Amino acid sequence: MSQPLQAPHKPPFWTIARRDAAAGYVFIAPQLIGIITFVLVPLGLVFWYSLHEWNVLASSFNFVGAANYQMLLADPNLSQVLLASAIFSAGLVVLNMTLALLLAVLLDQKLRGIVVFRTLFFSPVVVSLVAWTIVWSFLLQNNGGINGLLSMLGIEGPNWLRTPTTAMISVIVVQVFKNVGLNMILFLAALQGVPKELYEAARVDGAGAFKQFRRITLPLISPTILLTSIITIVGSLQVFAQIAVLTQGGPGMTTTVLVYYLYQQAFQFHFFGYGSTLSILLFVIVAVLTFVQWQLRKRVVFYEN
Amino acid sequence: MKTDLSPRMKTALYGLMCVLLIPFVFPTWWMITSSVKPISDIFAFPPDLWPRRFDFSTYAQVFELQPFARQYWNSAYIAALVTGGTMVISSMAGYAFARIKFPFSNAIFMVVLLGLLIPSEVTIVPLFQMFLGWGMINTHWPLILVPIFGAPSVFATFVMRQFFIALPTELEEAARVDGLGRFKIFWTIALPLAKPALGAVAIFTFLHSWNLYLEPIVFLSSTQMFTLPQALTQFTDAYGGAMWNIQLAAATMTAIPVLLVFIVAQKQFVEGLAHTGLKG
């Protein structure tokens, strides 16, 4: 851009600060335009769609106001879907965080070859998700490897993915082993950031290992625990591929979580309006959970850097 | 906590870790070894940890039953573009939010952060309609554009911003005194220093793209266009039953390259991802 010559006493329009600000806008422009185009506009659209009765097969698109929301409240499947989502998320988060913390503490020990163990525990994270799920669906079949191992112990295992009580447990466990390595690494990094002098001092005061863990380790890594729990819960609400490959939402609807139900309504049954209403429900749940967790931060997190 | 452990304690720890490792390592091992077993041996009992007979014909069948090479290429080039694109977009945006003063930068950052709050599943219906309107259904555009510019890249921007905030300012200030412009400073000074964060961004972006499943099955309809996760579930016989040995061979081919890269660059992976642990 050219600049007109100014009288010497007037500062030039194109100052360094302004040029800098312009550079800032140029730098963020792609991201901002992307967020507006692929997140904010679609979010507005999904709300607009949710006010319509829209069946793609019948090519109907009629404004119906809150009718989809009334339908949502009256949907006989909704309680089952929300229950399945809640069980999945709760089970996943509890198992994932506990196991991740346990593994991180184990892998924080000074032992020969510990790096090899870290690598092996982390390895499922880099195995392609659907490949991992396919192997487990193979192992969990009625005549698959898991029941084979059980029968060696004289136990007759259930048909894991076809029995209502065990299907959900199986999906959760498969997912935990796949991704717990991520949280494990984040916890390990946090553990290694805890000053060792604190443990020395505690030992002098006669605190045992468990007390040290409760009084020193947990408070000091609580920011990491909170962040990973948010990421894990939000991630758990997005589970789809595992359900699609392992159970297709069955048996019955016991593993039909919200995203899977949304997919069925919109892309299998072609009810785009109702699918959009379910999307709004998902959005509200994610937003509320995130908000609650951020509020919890003030009460639960003892230490923030 | 970590002082010299007694030998008995050490043995106990090793034993515990080995038992805990089984569900982490066995499935992958089972996948690889079963993929070279004849179908009759896959269900042999007790399971063979090492194949009794080798049968590599399943690997050929994978390519006969589906355009698997093409699908492989689809996944690979999409992941490469998404990874490269995200690194460019998120490092620029992250740098600007961390280091450049411009009006409304905090407000704009909040708007961008909304992307973290809105899972892409929420917007899948309108995205489908938008790409339908642009004639991009059954093309790879949705799988490239949305991850690079949309919600998935926001986490990357956040990580880059955290990294740039922590960089010392002296180097940049010296460069400014020398009269370097913003882009030069970013490109020649800040970006080379940001390699660890860029590595982390590259790793999780690649894994995210490589694993995408809902988006491909919504946006793609012809086998030629399929990506690997989608293709893996297509190896079924006329009755819809899974062709296990072929599926496992295809799954092995999908998993092995990333697994090999991980084993070679294990340290970078772990440190890179620990880096996104959002300290500071």
What does this protein look like?
The complex is a heterodimer of chains A (305) and B (280). Chain A has 305 residues and is an all-alpha fold. Helix content of chain A is 70%, strand content 3%. Chain A has 12 helices and 2 strands. Chain A has a two-stranded antiparallel sheet. The mean pLDDT of chain A is 88. With 280 residues, chain B is mostly helical. Chain B has helices spanning 7-34, 39-42, 57-65, 68-99, 105-117, 124-133, 141-149, 152-166, 170-177, 182-193, 195-211, 214-219, 228-232, 244-264, 266-275. The longest helix of chain B is centred in the N-terminal third of the chain and has 32 residues, at 68-99. At the A-B interface, helix 1, helix 4, helix 5, helix 6 and helix 7 of A face helix 1, helix 4, helix 5, helix 6 and helix 7 of B.
Termini distance of chain B?
25 Å
Q: How far apart are the termini of chain A?
A: 44 Å
> Rough shape of chain B?
globular
Count up the helices of chain A.
12
What is the overall silhouette of chain A? Answer: flat
Number of strands of chain A: 2
Please count the helical segments of chain B: 15
User: Order of strands across the biggest sheet of chain A?
Assistant: 1-2
- Total strand segments of chain B: 0
Order of helices and strands of chain A: HEEHHHHHHHHHHH
Poorly predicted ranges of chain B: none
Helix content of chain B: over 70%
- Structural class of the helices, strands and pairings of chain B? mainly alpha
Q: Largest beta sheet of chain B, briefly? A: none
Give the largest chain-chain interface (CB within 8 Å): A-B, 99 and 100 residues
Order of helices and strands of chain B: HHHHHHHHHHHHHHH
Beta-strand residue percentage of chain B: under 5%
C-alpha-based Rg of chain A, rounded: 26 Å
Mean pLDDT of chain A: 88
Helix content of chain A: over 70%
